[in-house]
Amino acid sequence: MEHKVTIKESSSLYSKILNTILFSMLIFFVIMLIARYRKREALPAGFRGETSEDFNESKDIDVRFSDVAGNAEAKDNMQDIIEFLKDPDKFKKFGVKIPKGIILYGPPGTGKTLLAKALAGEAGAAFIATSGSNFVEKYVGVGASRIRKLFGEARKKAPAIIFIDEIDAVGGKRGAEGSGNSEDAKTLNQLLVEMDGFKDDENIIVVAATNRLDMLDDALIRAGRFDRHVMVGLPDLNSRYEILKVHAKNKPLSEEVDLFQVAKQTVYMSGADLSGVMNEAAIYAIKEDNLKITLKHIDKAINKIVAGDEKKDRSNISDLEKKITAYHEAGHTVIAKLLNKESVPKVSIIPTTKGAAGYTLINPNEKMFQTKTEILNKISGLLGGRAAEEIIFGKQNITGGASNDLQRATKMALTLITKYGMSEKLGLVSFDDREISLQNELILNETKQILDKIYKKTLDYILLNKDKLEAVAQSLLNSEIINENELDILLAI
């Protein structure tokens, strides 16, 4: 028996439409959640509702100018800033407008941050520190927002010192064609707006630090903004002596240690380098269970800062490589001692952790100015190692050991013709770094001709003093290290 069964759909057309809509809404909701999560993770901390450490605040700074050795001129430049923050009414009576911003510029490690802290400490002002890189963001408005936040915080804490380290990260020169729509330009513009918006009674000074003043945008360093520029250079002999005394204050020194003599051996070292020397010397003394820091420890510390630690395992160095290194360093020594009349406290053919097969520690003569002849002789000193290799081992057997020497010699020759106006062909010109390129055929040819000419003179000079070259090299092969007294005997000085 057959049964006819009729099956009816359980859902109407309206139900199908409703289910489709609900399902689509669910998918859309899930997609939105994922998108919002990813966007939230991509944003900077301050834009996710989290705390963001964009700058550091300190109210009671215990650093004073007495803690900053050397830099007498820089400290003098800041004295009126201190007086203004302490007693602004005295200046207002005379209609004096104190500088809104100070640029501290100079090589790394010379104490720019320490000077800014000492300024705040002397003036009893809050110290709010940040870095230019904190304002560099790819997200629209983030950099400008952080600038506003920084200055807003300073107004609450006034009198205050805002310190922006590495300001070139945010205040570098803008392109000639203009880059007003870029995020970096908006951030820089916001910084300019905030500085222009200072009122005379706000008692806020902005101090910025940079290694390259010439890289900053002109709008940033004009009058009314960062209008006071303070050079913080490498310390001279007396300043190095004062810095060493500061860093040796709490360290037990042996009676034989003469810090003034140490200062003579640390030409071109920054304050940070000198701090490192005393710290490393103390570590060496502790390792050897000495009760006091001796000259030997300080000597090892200087060598470590300049060239790195001596390698203990030298089993992979062949006798030929050792010989090449000895003549290479002897070449540098002969030029330094005989031609340039420089001090050479130490020559070594022991490889170091910084990749040097050996090194010649030279203390150049400290002078405010150098003549063209002196600069060319310094280039000769850099080329002395390569010249000695060619004389002893032949042109086909020279090594790549002079690569760093060649880089420095090329830079020095380039500076001579493009900065100092000492080129016979280029004449009295001086370019900034963006205008200098070795792709320029005229500059390249002039640089090459100077180096070739000096190299030939270096070869001739070492050939003339080949007996002294041999004496230094053989002594190095025998003892690996020679000090200045031994060199003077070998070179009959």
TrEMBL record:
Cofactor(s) required, per the database record: Zn(2+)
InterPro entries reported for this sequence: AAA+_ATPase, AAA_lid_3, ATPase_AAA_core, ATPase_AAA_CS, FtsH, Peptidase_M41
EC number: 3.4.24.-
GO biological process: protein catabolic process; proteolysis
Cellular location(s): Cell membrane; Membrane
Domain called AAA+ ATPase: residue spans: 98-236
Cellular component GO terms held in the UniProt record: plasma membrane
Location of the active site: E329
Keywords, in A-Z order: ATP-binding, Cell membrane, Hydrolase, Membrane, Metal-binding, Metalloprotease, Nucleotide-binding, Protease, Transmembrane, Transmembrane helix, Zinc
TM annotation in the entry: 17-35
Enzyme class: hydrolase
Residues given in the record as Zn(2+) binding sites: H328, H332, D405
Cofactor note: Binds 1 zinc ion per subunit.
Binding, ATP: G106, P107, P108, G109, T110, G111, K112, T113
Membrane topology reported for the UniProt record: Multi-pass membrane protein
Single annotated GO MF: ATP binding
Cleaved signal peptide residues: none
Biological role: Acts as a processive, ATP-dependent zinc metallopeptidase for both cytoplasmic and membrane proteins. Plays a role in the quality control of integral membrane proteins.
HAMAP family, sorted: FtsH
Similarity comment text for this entry: In the central section; belongs to the AAA ATPase family.
Oligomeric form and interacting partners: Homohexamer.
Protein name listed in UniProt: ATP-dependent zinc metalloprotease FtsH
